[in-house]
Amino acid sequence: MKEDLSCLLVGDKIGDAAKEAIAFGADKVYTVEDPLLKQYQADSFIQVVEKVAKDTLPRIVLFGQTSMGRELAPRLAFRLGVCLSTDCLDLTIDPNTKLLRQTRPVYGGNAQAIFVSEFMPQVVTVRPKAMSPIERDALKQVQGNIIPTRISIDTTKVRTKVLETVKEEVVGVKLEDAPVIVSGGRGMRGPEPFKTILKELADLLHGAVGASRPPADNGWVPEATHVGLTGKIVAPDVYIAVAISGASQHIAGCSGSKHIIAINKDPEANIFKEAEFGVVGKWEEILPAFTNKLKELL
Predict the structure, then answer these.
(1) Are 120 and 59 in contact (CB under 8 A)?
(2) Per-residue confidence (pLDDT) for residue 230, from 0 to 100
(3) Sequence-ordered list of residues with C-beta below 8 angstroms from that of 259, at least 6 positions apart, any chain
(4) What is the distance, to the nearest Å, from the Cα of residue 191 to the centroid of all Cα atoms in its chain?
(5) Radius of gyration, alpha carbons of the chain
């Protein structure tokens, strides 16, 4: 498209974040600082995003497929009267129309479809790790343009108030950042295997432990480990699914993984349709043998 890439940073004390955004590829960085923006609150943040979008008239607006992005992107698209594509896995430019071609999963992750909108701006959320980041270029920091922007927040439109923020305690690698995720399903039959055999394998591979929805619903694992349509959307290098049937809701959360390995005693389990490698058998026999062999190799 040969157009400038602009970044919007919103907060109270942004500091050097604008320079870092330029080092990672931004040509322009709009910064909006206000004590009212110290904590994320959708009603205040959307006022900033909408104002900047209307003032700068971008052709494309990109959000991450995060909890914040999932909340702000639909609001912005509605206020601008345009379409929205969520959870995109790939973005390309049509050479003829110059419109954005947005590839996203459909039917619970069982297929992919390409969407194109003729309305501007084209608002999109992108799945984390769907694309490889560019290298940091410190020299670019002197070339970029940082534009401080003042926007008055209408507090009468802020309908909720943050009373308390509790930081989630994460031991080890965060699920979203893990290069390897070892997930267990209902077939684990309780919380203990998640704390022992799955954790041992995950630690050995410098990864994290995940779960399908039933273990989270049953209280076997923290909700933060739930991978699926209503949980975390992950895209690790390797996703090991143990005793997971492969319901579409779960596949939607892990279909972006580079490699999926399935272990299940049911040869007809749907997870094998998604897996690159599969082992049919009891996890109680396979996992210890697999882990011990890895210890020898590593």
Answers:
(1) yes
(2) 81
(3) 237, 238, 239, 276, 277
(4) 26
(5) 22
- Contacts for 168 with CB less than 8 Å, ≥ 6 apart: 224
- For the chain, residues classed under CATH 3.40.50.620 are 6-157
Do residues 193 and 286 touch, judged by C-beta distance below 8 A?
Answer: no
H/E segment holding residue 70: helix 67-80
Q: Which two tokens stand for residue 59?
A: 């052709």
Give the end-to-end CA distance of the chain in Å, rounded to a whole number.
46
On whether the pTM is more than 0.90, the answer is no
Output the CATH code of domain 6-157: 3.40.50.620
Per DSSP, the three-state class of 281 is: coil
Counted residue by residue, the chain has a size of: 298
- Cis bond before residue 121 (omega within 30° of 0): yes
Give pLDDT, residue 138.
80
Which amino acid is located at 123 in the chain? V
Comma-separated ranges of CATH 3.40.50.1220 domains in the chain? 175-297
How far is Cα 237 from Cα 258, in angstroms, rounded to an integer?
A: 5
What are the pLDDT digits (tens) for 257-278? 999 999 999 999 999 999 999 9
Largest CA distance in the chain: 63
Encode pLDDT of 169-216 as tens digits. 767 788 988 999 999 999 999 999 999 999 999 999 999 999 999 999
Contact between 274 and 260 under an 8 Å Cβ cutoff? The reply is yes
The answer to whether domain 175-297 has CATH 3.40.50.1220 is yes
Q: Output the pLDDT for position 2.
A: 67
